[in-house]
Amino acid sequence: MSHQVSNFSNAQKYCHHQRAEIIMPKTEEENYVTKMLLQKIKFSTSSVWNGLWIGLTDNEHEGTWNWNDGTKPDFLYWAPGEPNGYSGENCAIIDKSARKCHDVKCSISDLYSAVCQLKATEKMCSCRCDYKRKLEHLESKIPQHQTMEDLKRELEPVIRKIQNELKVNKTNISSIIRKLTSAKDERKSSHAIGFFGALFISVIFGTVFFMDIVMLRQHIDNIRKICGNKEKNIRQNLSRKKKLATIITIQKKKRKIDSF
């Protein structure tokens, strides 16, 4: 892998010009990737101090190390006896021989290799930015003699972990949705809305029920009227028949009298 050595300040400037940062191996996987990169760098000498700058300093407070993005490291693989806190040793490298961290001076005369990593932004990706950044950077640094298949084999543990972390736990999501949708709303406004909503529904239901009763009563009245008219007609018909029978009887009696 081709490379150039520079002091910490120039390495930072170069990475910032590329919209990137000096590599910051914050996790086990990133440490593994950094060590792989370090292994592939061909140094011009076999000096024990052949190493790689990392974006770690204690410039603000001696002994308090921070990454260049302002975050604090969860863990660091320091070499035995490091950091020793010698005067002016406010920067850090990973040396090639031990593949562990050493504190070194940030002076312009201290030259080491540098690798830049892309800055993770919200626009680039909304989750797992560190992994995406790491894989994209490593892909851009593949040596000519190494194929993608070789790289995949070397990164298989990292890729497997990324896949596991990107899996969606459907059970947890369903549980969270149920809790959110069934949660009681204690706000006064929600109680007022609920009361007026119930009152409105009750008024609508009562109005419909009242209209149904009125219509039912009208139907009953109509039925009674129809039945009353039929009874009246029947009585009228019976009255006519009686009158007719009486007239016929009188006429018969009159004929008998006339015959005598």
Automatic annotation (TrEMBL):
Gene3D superfamilies: Mannose-Binding Protein A, subunit A (3.10.100.10). It comes from Mytilus galloprovincialis. This is C-type lectin domain-containing protein. Residues 1-107 form the C-type lectin domain. The chain crosses the membrane at residues 192-216. InterPro entries: C-type_lectin-like, C-type_lectin-like/link_sf, C-type_lectin/snaclec_domain, CTDL_fold. It comes from the Eukaryota. PROSITE patterns: C_TYPE_LECTIN_2. SMART domains: CLECT (SM00034). The keyword Membrane applies. The keyword rRNA-binding does not apply. Keywords: Membrane, Transmembrane, Transmembrane helix. Pfam families: Lectin_C.
